[in-house]
Design brief:
227 residues; alpha/beta; Rossmann fold; 6-stranded mixed β-sheet; 4-stranded antiparallel β-sheet; 7 helices; 10 strands; globular
């Protein structure tokens, strides 16, 4: 498989009260196209920071983040925003759905930034909701859905633009065991059937086992390959 993401000598620090606080130390990581990677580590290990760098939400203090041959760390903000919209689907722990919008309207949100017609947007949204098994819930509001269903709506929103990379930050962290299992099954299907490259941050060893590759972060260092 061809490499999709190349991370070279990445370091990230934040400044607080005049003090430099290192979060990531000289990270090197390659992710193949079609990979399903789990990033594990204790709180404060830097795993969410690394995810944000890959997704173009944050910028490294030094080093390069190359996605499909483009160093996204060198892009200006407007170019980076456009790149994220075209290439990245975001899945969060707490769904981030807008309560006054239906499932259909929540999933449609990323498409409002595109040049698609209303009919094309409708087709994309219906396809995404069908993939996650919620075609019969598209007119429901978040409060009418279970937590697992809300997360599936959030996943439909993440895939509606057909991004090449899905980034998931603790996607099962707020779910019961049964709902979490459904989400992990769905992510695995998106990887295997739809060839989505997935990078998931999790502290849950069971969730990580659904991935093809597990990497561990500890105090800002990438320490081993488990799988």
């Amino acid at each position: 498989m061809a490499e999709l993401i190349q991370i070279k000598n990445i370091a990230k620090s934040y400044w607080r009260d005049g003090m430099e606080i290192p979060v990531l130390n000289n990270i090197n990581l390659n992710v193949d196209r079609g990979e399903y990677l789990a990033l594990m580590g204790p709180s404060g290990s830097g795993k969410s920071t690394l995810l944000n760098l890959i997704a173009g939400i944050d910028r490294p203090t030094k080093g390069a983040v190359s996605v499909d041959g483009t160093d996204i760390a060198q892009m200006n903000e407007s170019a980076l925003a456009k790149w994220r919209a075209n290439h990245i689907g975001f899945i969060f722990q707490f769904y981030n759905l807008i309560p006054v919008l239906t499932a259909f309207e929540n999933v449609q949100l990323p498409l409002l930034l595109t040049k698609l017609s209303k009919a094309e947007r409708k087709k994309h949204v219906e396809t995404a909701l069908t993939i996650v098994g919620l075609a019969d819930r598209m007119n429901h509001y978040p409060k009418q859905l279970s937590g697992g269903q809300e997360q599936r709506v959030a996943i439909a929103r993440a895939i509606v633009t057909d991004p090449s990379i899905l980034v998931a930050d603790e996607p099962t962290g707020d779910l019961d065991k049964h709902s979490a299992e459904e989400i992990l099954t769905l992510l695995k299907r998106l990887n295997e059937e739809f060839d989505k490259t997935i990078i998931m941050v999790t502290h849950d060893p069971h969730a990580a086992e659904s991935a093809k590759v597990i990497r561990h972060l500890e105090k800002g260092d990438l320490i081993e390959v488990s799988k």
